[in-house]
Structure to design on (370 residues):
């Protein structure tokens, strides 16, 4: 292809310059994103580089400062033996890859590996349970008898009270509950949150938490009870709302691809989130929704809210709807500025990605027709 070599040369130069830029930000202190953007505005005026493109570069350079690349010495100094139960699943494979990248000896235990359980579990410094939610407590009971008192027992389930309690009851050694607040498509911990629910002997698992932070992750520490209460709002209601809207579109027979031609980036983003949810493992999300009576009660209140608003619409109660809208707005007002900045950045990124994909598709079609 014409120009490929030139593009490769430019890319190599860009990568080298970006590495130099990130190093400079790290060693000399980073100006604010807005200051960095302002400094370059005059240079951008006479080029075909958009302000948003440059802003994205600045933001990603700043984000790179959140990670620490382990040196070879760091990798081999504290190499630990880790077994991930369910290590070929989505979350299990993610943790397996990240811990191996940090220099640890990671083994996987799946359903057909129990003939090696004595070795895989008995000799491990850390056993991480990454199985479906409904199987987690049973797995805790199953593995506990194999573990040394010095072995750290951890899990990544989306409920914590019952699971952490089970780990504490069945294992006398160090215990920590983890809940990664992200899903598929996450290459590293960069920009991702992991909820940490300490169980017993927290200092023993500090190296694992340090690994997550060094890889760019953010740790949120709380009790198992607070975690489960927060997950009602953070996960359950959102999942149910997205699931309900997706079910409605499916029943209505909406042509999603055609609707994109008429839609704003915000609509496209919301549909993408729904699609991302409903095309994954149905049992996983149904189990999350049905995991406790607290979750079912919250969903019932959500349904009642929908019914109340629909009733106001049916009655033509304009004043009542405006009052509800303004009351809700007041609740969200403290974070409105932040939300506008973050959502605008997200939607601009999506718009640029869609535009780039369209150009790529057109060029592919032109090349095929030539």
């Amino acid at each position: 292809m014409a120009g490929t070599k030139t593009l490769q040369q430019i890319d190599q130069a860009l990568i080298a310059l970006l590495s130099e830029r990130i190093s400079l930000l790290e060693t000399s202190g980073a100006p604010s994103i807005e200051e960095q953007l302002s400094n370059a505005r005059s240079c951008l005026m006479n080029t075909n580089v958009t302000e948003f493109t440059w802003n994205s570069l600045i933001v990603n350079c700043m984000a790179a400062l959140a990670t620490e690349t382990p040196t070879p010495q760091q990798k081999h100094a504290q190499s630990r033996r880790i077994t991930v139960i369910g290590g070929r699943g989505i979350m299990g494979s993610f943790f397996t890859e990240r811990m191996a990248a940090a220099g640890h000896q990671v083994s996987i235990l799946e359903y057909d590996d129990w003939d090696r359980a004595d070795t895989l579990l008995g000799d491990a410094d850390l056993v991480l349970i990454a199985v479906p939610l409904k199987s987690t407590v049973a797995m805790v009971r199953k593995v506990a008898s194999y573990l040394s008192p010095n072995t750290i027992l951890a899990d990544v389930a989306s409920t914590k009270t019952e699971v952490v309690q089970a780990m504490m009851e069945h294992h006398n050694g160090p215990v920590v509950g983890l809940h990664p607040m992200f899903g598929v498509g996450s290459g590293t911990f960069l920009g991702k949150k992991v909820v940490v629910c300490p169980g017993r002997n927290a200092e023993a698992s500090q190296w694992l938490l340090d690994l997550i932070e060094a890889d760019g992750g953010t740790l949120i520490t709380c009790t198992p009870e607070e975690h489960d209460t927060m997950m009602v709002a953070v996960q359950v209601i959102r999942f149910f709302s997205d699931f309900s809207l997706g079910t409605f579109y499916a029943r209505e027979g909406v042509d999603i691809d055609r609707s994109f031609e008429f839609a704003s980036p915000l609509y496209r983003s919301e549909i993408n989130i729904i699609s991302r949810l409903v095309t994954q493992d149905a049992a996983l999300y149904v189990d999350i929704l049905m995991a406790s009576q607290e979750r079912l009660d919250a969903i019932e209140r959500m349904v009642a809210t929908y019914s109340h608003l629909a009733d106001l619409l049916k009655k033509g109660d304009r004043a009542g709807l405006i009052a509800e809208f303004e009351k809700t707005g007041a609740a969200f007002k403290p974070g409105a500025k932040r939300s506008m900045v973050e959502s605008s950045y997200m939607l601009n990124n999506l718009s640029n990605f869609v535009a780039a994909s369209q150009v790529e598709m057109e060029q592919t079609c032109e090349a095929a027709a030539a």
About this structure: The longest strand covers residues 193-200. Residues 228-363 form a domain with the 6-phosphogluconate dehydrogenase C-terminal fold fold (CATH 1.10.3660.10).
